[in-house]
Design brief:
- By secondary structure, the protein is mainly α.
- The protein has a domain at 1-54.
- Helix content is 72%, strand content 6%.
- It contains eight helices and two strands.
- It has a two-stranded antiparallel sheet.
- Strand 1 and strand 2 (116-120) form a beta hairpin.
- Helix 5 crosses helix 6.
């Protein structure tokens, strides 16, 4: 059981709020948004991983396979790292597992024979074609509870947050 399902959001919120009051004398304020996003993200990944268990996949492995499936040609592990925000060592471990289970294969890059890329095997292709529609339907069911208006507002709000975080990060990086 992952931490997101082991502890309630309220427990986490209370602990973090206590720490903030202790360190700053202030209530959580917008920090609560970060906690909600983190908790929802973990809970969604856990829920989808549960659906993927019969296929021997976790959510991260599934996403790697989706990225491979999106390409007509093979994909470089560095590109997977960049797109998923994973470390190289964790990406290597995940890809090794997929290769070891005959879901992916390593192929020599046609343009640069020193580079090794990844693509789905026939077995991996069959699994992703079976699983992708199932997860898509499950995700639609999750968000259906919000209704169209709230879902659109959430998407727009998160898109705005993404842009704000990217801008802040660029500003902070330029200052440091």
């Amino acid at each position: 059981m992952n931490n997101s399902t082991k502890h309630s959001f309220n427990d986490t919120e209370n602990l973090v709020a206590r720490a903030h009051r202790r360190a700053t004398g202030e209530e959580l304020g917008v920090i609560r948004i970060n906690l909600l996003i983190k908790h929802c993200s973990c809970l969604i990944a856990d829920t989808l991983s549960d659906l993927l268990k019969p296929y021997g996949l976790c959510y991260k492995s599934y996403l790697i396979m989706v990225m491979m499936y999106s390409r007509d040609d093979a994909i470089n592990p560095s590109e997977l790292c960049d797109n998923m925000g994973e470390t190289r060592s964790n990406m290597t471990r995940l890809c090794d597992e997929l290769v070891g289970r005959d879901l992916a294969k390593r192929v020599t890059n046609a343009a640069d024979r020193r580079r090794i890329d990844l693509s789905l095997t026939d077995h991996g292709l069959a699994i992703i074609q079976e699983v992708l529609p199932l997860l898509r339907e499950r995700i639609k069911q999750m968000y259906a509870r919000l209704g169209d208006t709230m879902r659109i507002q959430l998407e727009e709000g998160l898109q705005g947050l993404l842009l704000a975080v990217e801008d802040s990060r660029r500003t902070w990086n330029n200052e440091g």
